[in-house]
From TrEMBL:
The lineage of its organism: Eukaryota, Metazoa, Chordata, Tunicata, Ascidiacea. It is found in: Cytoplasm. It comes from the Eukaryota. Keywords: ATP-binding, Cytoplasm, ER-Golgi transport, Hydrolase, Magnesium, Metal-binding, Nucleotide-binding, Protein transport, Transport. This is Vesicle-fusing ATPase. It catalyses: ATP + H2O = ADP + phosphate + H(+). Belongs to the AAA ATPase family.
């Protein structure tokens, strides 16, 4: 199978495999053999449960032809099993530039969940924007990305995408990262001990402190 055939005949069948290495897992891309994909691109993966997911593709000789390598996080998100047959179709994302992407951040390892730590979101934007640009990343709501900050593994979950194209997969918005055009924001996960600073953070809502519908007259202070 070559990329010309793949692109011209719609969906093609691939087998799910493990990502060949931890280093490639950190690209947050699915890994394909160069013979199957002549260029890095974006694809829609159908998992056999009538569910579709958007992924960015990176080529590497470490994966066999006819297979696609998924990290554990990617397989969990898309409900995929090793050896499973999936249908894959090329997806043009050039007209779906994301204006803003909001990530929810949390620890990847449970044993770190109670560790209080501060991260500067301005520094995070600089680091992760370079990563997203390098791999020409696309995003889909609820998609998870494994990243590191100060040698700590973190999970970034796409909570919101703002885009003019309104391109959807399975009813979820998608978008393509573009340096200088895509604003990246962060919020810490509920109950997370991660503290965020900088201009690219979204403050947690103190829900429940004041109910806007509460009748203060009843307390005699209205």
């Amino acid at each position: 199978m070559n990329m010309k055939a793949f692109g011209s005949h719609g969906a093609s069948e691939f087998s799910v495999a493990k990502c060949p290495s931890n280093t490639l897992s950190m690209t947050n891309s699915i890994i394909a053999n160069y013979s199957d994909f002549k260029n890095e691109s974006h694809v829609i993966v159908e998992n056999g449960r009538n569910q579709k997911f958007l992924f960015t593709v990176k080529t590497d000789d470490g994966i066999q032809q006819g297979s696609l390598g998924f990290s554990g996080i990617q397989r969990k998100w898309a409900y995929l099993g090793i050896g499973q047959k999936i249908r894959v179709q090329a997806c043009k994302m050039s007209d779906a530039i994301a204006q803003e992407v909001v990530f929810e951040i949390d620890f990847f390892r449970r044993q770190q969940a109670k560790t209080k730590i501060n991260f500067n979101t301005d520094e995070m934007v600089d680091i992760y924007s370079r990563h997203f640009r390098e791999f020409n990343h696309s995003f889909m709501e609820d998609q998870e990305f494994l990243v590191t900050m100060n040698d700590i593994h973190l999970i970034l979950t796409v909570k919101e995408i703002k885009t003019k194209s309104a391109m959807q997969v399975n009813g979820r918005l998608t978008g393509l990262f573009s340096l200088g055009e895509t604003n990246v924001m962060f919020s810490s996960a509920p109950e997370s001990s991660i503290l965020l600073g900088g201009k690219h953070r979204i403050r947690k809502q103190n829900a429940g402190i004041i109910n806007p519908d509460f009748d203060f007259q009843r307390l005699g202070i209205g």
